[in-house]
TrEMBL record:
InterPro entries: AAA+_ATPase, P-loop_NTPase, Signal_recog_part_SRP54_M_sf, Signal_recog_particl_SRP54_hlx, Signal_recog_particle_SRP54_M, SRP, SRP54, SRP54_GTPase_dom
Lineage, top ranks: Bacteria, Bacillati, Bacillota, Clostridia, Eubacteriales
Family in the record: Belongs to the GTP-binding SRP family. SRP54 subfamily.
Every SRP54-type proteins GTP-binding domain range: 97-292
Name of the featured protein: Signal recognition particle protein
Amino acid sequence: GLSNKLQDTFKKLRGKGKLTEKDIKEATREIKIALLEADVNFKVVKDFIKKINERAVGVEVLQSLTPGQQVIKIVNDELTSLMGKENTKLEFSKKGITPIMLVGLQGAGKTTTGGKLANLLKEKGKKVLLVACDVYRPAAIKQLQVLGQQISVDVFSLGDKESPVQIAKKAIEHAEHNLYDVVIVDTAGRLHVDEQLMDELYNIKNEIEPVEILLNVDAMTGQDAVTVAESFNEKLDITGIIMTKLDGDTRGGAALSITAVTGKHIKFVGMGEKIADLEPFYPDRMASRILGMGDVLSLIEKAQANFDEQKALELQEKIRKQEFTLVDFKEQMQQMKSMGSLSDILQMMPGANTKALQGLDMSDKELVKTEAIIDSMTEAERLNPDIINASRRKRIAQGSGTRVQDVNKLLKGFEQSRKMMKQLSSMGGKKMSKFKLP
Ligand code: GDP
Ligand code: MG
């Protein structure tokens, strides 16, 4: 699937300390193929790749700490904004009833979603009325009634003798008299978009003036879902999309293109057939789900927010020249207070050996202690910790108000990170890719 393909591409990038334009070209070519294979709209892919190229080349110029991972971040950012950036909530009327219309092709999941949505709103304390406006299939009314019973939500039906427009109108009147908060109108669908259906939906819309017209599309239909959304949007000016059956879609193409093509946001996704399987849609979560690397992304974000680029370059240089001393270690402590831990940063570097770092305790309390200990050392000791023998350790412990064990622990932790840095700096570019990355 898309996830695996993208991860393979990123694996190659993450093994590199520096990216060339050729690396980026190759990576974006692979991303492009992966997206097209996932049934993402061609034009959307084209624009997407253009943006990635522009931004990724900039990264190379900056020579950031880990360019490969920054490309992952860029792809993640762009995927997220492709899907609308943030979760878009349902709108509600300021006062009175909030009419919601569910529209879509036959089998898209309207009726099921109606039940799910009614349940969700009921749990939020709303008084909800479901309305059966699919009068063409005898089983459709029954289906909604069964659902309503299951979740204890009232269902308004006038059978199949009245027109859908009349049913919708009377349902709103009924809701007004009985003080409902939300009215969810389940409409009919067809196998294909047709004029008659669109006219009917348009008339219902005019009659009840819904706050939300939510188009249900089946994620498994890929590009067809996008085409369908364009037609419905053109005629009805929908307010949002509910993408159903995302649990069965391994490609993700529809979710990735539909907002870019229609300009309308996905508000919910259907993740199964059960009542509870309706979730608000979060573009950022979907993006990291597609990339399959949520942990790495949050780490990169943290580092980007707090880590001074220049300082990072200096540190890298010191690591390369194996000049990392306790003075640098202490300086790192200051930075770490704002960003997490040295082990996080080291783990982000290509070829990092995560096991070696587990002994480092970077809690706030520990940092204060560490600073005190390093402050109690002489300059010579800080630059060359090898000279710190037993009697020096005792003196340092006394001077810093700590115990000899604490001094030992710090020196051991420092030694571990230094060892790891040596390891990192002794690795050639080619060798790096052989190491398993975090
Ligand atoms: P409608 O014709 O648009 O009203 O579609 P229905 O609500 O009758 O749903 C058609 C079929 O899709 C039913 O078998 C539902 O159980 C199924 N369905 C609806 N939503 C989802 C979903 O999110 N995931 C899965 N796996 N099935 C769904
Ligand atoms: Mg239905």
